[in-house]
Amino acid sequence: MKNASQSNAAAKVREELENAIAWGEFAPGSRLDETALAARFGVSRTPIREALQQLAAAGLIEIRPRRGATVAVASPERLYEMFEVMAELEAMCARLAARRVSAEGLAALQSAQAQCARNRDDPDAYYAANEAFHQAIYRLSGNGFLASEAASLQKRLRPYRRLQLRVRNRVQTSFSEHESIIGHLEAGDGEAAAAALRDHVRVQGERFSDLVASLAQLNAA
Amino acid sequence: MKNASQSNAAAKVREELENAIAWGEFAPGSRLDETALAARFGVSRTPIREALQQLAAAGLIEIRPRRGATVAVASPERLYEMFEVMAELEAMCARLAARRVSAEGLAALQSAQAQCARNRDDPDAYYAANEAFHQAIYRLSGNGFLASEAASLQKRLRPYRRLQLRVRNRVQTSFSEHESIIGHLEAGDGEAAAAALRDHVRVQGERFSDLVASLAQLNAA
DNA sequence: ATGTCCGCTCTTGTATACAAGAAAAAGATT
DNA sequence: AATCTTTTTCTTGTATACAAGAGCGGACAT
Prior knowledge:
The structure is a homodimer. Chain A is mainly alpha-helical. The first copy, chain A, folds into two domains: 9-71, Arc Repressor Mutant, subunit A (Orthogonal Bundle); 76-220, Up-down Bundle (Four Helix Bundle (Hemerythrin (Met), subunit A)), CATH 1.20.120.530. Chain A has helices at residues 9-22, 34-41, 45-58, 76-100, 103-118, 123-140, 144-164, 170-186, 190-201, 206-220; strands at residues 31-32, 61-64, 68-71. A three-stranded antiparallel β-sheet of chain A has the order 1-3-2. The structure holds a DNA duplex.
């Protein structure tokens, strides 16, 4: 599914930085010093800079001329906006998936959901399984471009979404919402599946306050 | 609205390359030689490479390791997918815009439409005015993130969309569709505006064959 | 004439050297 | 003592030098 190890160093650096940001090693706002990164990865500044350019274009970091790179920091408003778009993209995936769903497709989805079930107790593991579940839906949409755009936005939201699952009962709720999404897809009801997925992803009401709270926690660390 | 002239050379190169690709100077599939570009822009290969990395991350070009950069070439299927996503994003903009539209907002939209009217005879000029019209709607959505994502996809579709307007009567049709979109927004009918914009953007039926035809024309040149 | 193998060239990928702006530190002035 | 100014240092931006893989062409064999 993913082109594993690129031959060039810049691509490797890019991927490792993505992970480091996703898992919170570099929190939003932290500075990314080129020389330090070069030392860390055992390469010169050149491939580091190329990786940073790509990450900036993807929106994960921000480069201000002559002032270096920092991990992108999203305001609560911007975060709300991003989740609103993500919700709509995923809803679109569901709508399309309902029309084109096949036996193998549903099997893949259910296997991803089973993986979620197995990791109910560990938020980080559940997070990974949850990502796979959503990506399965992206693929089921049958629209490859949509799938890659959704995955890219998913990546961009990683630093924040990961924390979301630490909220009390959120894992359990998420899991049962998955169930109902699967149900709508099995029934071939695209609009219901879309609505369910939209609500599943969207942050509104108390979930928004939860998000802002985790944001504060993240900035404190 | 846009941060005009960046201080660094790489950003300038990036912007110029974007335009060159948009206006067809580099057709999809053409090779982008680093040394040649360096000579053209009067800089070394370093800023050229940085610009290319960014363009690749944005999806406008493709870099294959050790084999150089080429302008991204989209298959008809992929192109259909991209327009499908674009249509949905713009529909979302319209839905949100209908809720938040103000007098100034509508005025901005109508002024953009007037600009379209003034350029009905010149496809290239109409194309620019049309882009402004759509961007006005992005902004009216009130969701800044959505607006920037839509603009980014718009940029990515430029090489193809520009040709679309050369199809017989397309400019006229496009213009009157704009009128009806404005009407729905004035009426505050989000769903109708969304549907109208979705159909306006989507390529289906004969418009898809038109697109494939212009694609072939583009590859021949 | 066609196909294959080997070497050459040309382009990309990485490292290093140098230039210039920004932050930080030291000094001067009130 | 505090603030403004100047100088120093540190980091980024760009250029150049070097290494290595990919493509091309010629020589050779069939």
